[in-house]
Amino acid sequence: MLFDQIARNKRRTIYVLIGFCLLVMAVGAAVGYTFYNSAPGGLITAVILAVGYSAVMIGNSTNVVMKMNHAHEISGTNQYLDLQHIVEDMALVARVPVPKVYVIDDESPNAFATGNNPQHAAVAATTGLLAKLNREELEGVMAHEMTHVRNYDIRLQTIALALAAVIGILVNFATHFFWFGNRKSDSKSGPLEAIMMVVSLILVILGPIAATIAQLALSRNREYLADAGAVELTRNPQGLIDALNVISDSAPMKAADASSAALYIADPFKKKRSWQHLFDTHPATPDRIARLQKM
Question: Between β-strands 100-104 and 121-126, what pairing exists: parallel, antiparallel or unpaired?
Answer without folding.
Answer: parallel
